[in-house]
Each structure stands twice: as C-alpha cells, then as structure tokens.
Amino acid sequence: MAERSLGGIQSEVPNRAAGAETPAENRHPARYFRFDLIRVFAAALIFIFHYNLEAGSASQGNLIRPYGFGKYINFGPLGVTLFLLLSGYLVAVSFRRFSGQSGRGRASTVFHWYLRRASTIYPRYWVCYLVAALGSMTVYQHVGRVILLSILGLDGYAEFSGVNTYYQVGEWYLGAIILLYLMAPFLYGALHRKPRLTMILLLAWYLFFLFFYPRQISWFGNRASHFGIDSDVLLRVLDFGIGMYIGMYVPKIRTAVLLPCAAAFLIAFFWDVPNVVYPLTGELSGVSTFLAFLWLGQNIERIPGKMAQRFRTVISGLAKYTYTFFLLHHVAIAGTMRAAGDRMNQPAVYWGGMLWTLIMTSILTVAIDLGTNAAAAKIRALGKQ
Hints:
With 385 residues, the chain is mainly α. 39% of the residues are buried. It has helices at 15-18, 24-27, 33-58, 75-100, 106-135, 147-152, 155-160, 171-193, 195-220, 223-226, 233-249, 258-270, 279-300, 306-319, 322-340, 347-384; strands spanning 68-69, 73-74. Helix content is 72%, strand content 1%.
C-alpha cells in the first residue's frame, strides 16, 4: 500500500525494480548494533588522529605516532567518512519511517523532519559550546552578527573557510552535516525516483569537483589555507548520497562483498596518488570499511550467548555518547597539550595524557548528555500539562 512521504513520494521505495528488499531497519525502529559499532569505531579513529596530531605539534614534530593505516589512509578522514556514510544511511531510514507515520502534507512533513533533526543536534551542541567557552574563559567583546554562525552550528565550517568566528566546538564536520541535512529531502527524492541516474550524477559531480578544485583554490585565495578539499561539503555530498543509497536499496551486506571491499582498501592503502586525487583513497577506504562493518555488525547481532550480549550492550552504551564526545574531544585534547608543554615526546606523558583526556572527555560527555536529556524531558512534560 502506498503511503504519503516527503516530497509527495510514496514511502514504499520501488525496491523490486531496484532488485532489493525493504531494509529490516525500516520496519523496526529499534537501535541496531551494526550502527553503534560503526559510531564507536569512527569516534575512536577521530580521537586517536586528533590526539596524535596535536601531540606531534606540541613536541615540535619529534613524536612519531601513527596517524593512520600505512602511508595513505589517515584515521581522522576515515572516521569522518564513516560518520558521513552512516548519517546518509540513517537519514534514508528515518525519512521512510517518519513519512510513513505522518499524515501531514509535503511541506509540513519536511518541516517536522527538520525540527526532529534540529532537536537531536542543537541542545547538546549549545550546552557543549557554553561549557567550552566557560572552560577557556572566553569573553566575547563587541559581539557581531557572526555569532549567528555559532548559534546555527556553522562557525567551525566558516572558520575553516577563512571567516573569523566565535568557534568553540564541532569543527567543520558539524557545519557540513547540517548543510547535508538541508539537502537531504531533495537528495532522497532524487534517489527514490531515479536511483541509478542520481548516483551517476553524484559520482560525475564528485570527479568534476575533484579536478576543478585546484583552480578554485587559486580563485578563492585564503580559503585554501584553512579549508582542505576533503572538508568541503560540495565534495562530501557523495559520501552522504552513497549512505542514503545503501540505506534505501541494500538491506543486507552479503559475505561476497568482503572480497571487493578488501581489494578497494588495499588499493587505497598502497596507492601513491597525486595530491589532486588524494581524496579518492579516502573514498575507497571509507566505503569499503563501512560495508565491511555493516557485514560484521549484522553477523554479531545474531551471535547468541551472554558474552555476545554483553559486548553488544557495552558498544551500544558507548555509542549513545559519541556525538557529545565528538563535540568535546578536541577541546579536552587542547587542554592536555597546554598542560604537557614540550614534554609530550616522553612516553609516560604521552600515554598518561591520552588516558587523562579520554577520562575527562568521557566525564563531561556523560554529565552533559544526562543533564540535557533530563532538562528536555522536563520541558516535554511541561508542554503536555
């Protein structure tokens, strides 16, 4: 039976024409372990990457710590790619479920979906922003209109683009994901109507932008010194689109996909590419790792026994805090580096600093999440009275 959905599109995706079944996640809104596994793994990669990056800088480059796998795959970019793919996947799932439960018209459904997304992003972001500002004793004088970028969560993205803002937390990724969410209803509609054509156009745009970007750098001057190509939302829309396509049309990752995934990862691992096409290594490693972890997660979900259940419970428990952890981790790392000074090249200081940063970020994360959730619950209760 056809159901109303975003953009007036039936929520019943034409899976038979695409040769796929309706994903189980669309039928059951409960949390899935495979997604939690990807969240925790990606967050760990980003934390290690940023800590090692800052540690190397604090020790004048004397500290040699791994930033990635081999020579060409960095932990941080890989973690970000996994988050973008997962975000696209879950957006596709949420569109189907949200529109199927809605009796509203097209514009109203899109508007309420945006409200739902905003309610998951902004409360914790605003609290983390205030905590970071207070922690650094930042005093804003002569606040201008650019503070709106901080309120909207776009300040990190703008800062990386060469705009002076009141940036505190979130980095470029938060701004990029907000912009991708704004594009999401249109991308979902295109993938629903013409999935293959849409993916071809996204890939063509990606390749065009990839080779066009060096000229764009020369045109926009200082933007290039702050903003790398792999941080540009105009390039990363492909990751988001691939995630949405998988969420809509690939209900199950079969074991046979592991061989091409391993081949793609090894190509990215050993491929000494020119700088102009360097993001391709991140794309190959990111998509292959994402598919492999979906396969791994869906198989771990089926393992019986208490030990397996405990493992799933621990991972899912950690995954609930990954967003706030991501917002805060770089602030905590910066504080550790200031305290350590030039001693970060000492193993005890390095490992002790990493443990201390992890503990402090985790404590702040849990406190902010619990406090924000409690406040939101009280506000909802007051609204029902």
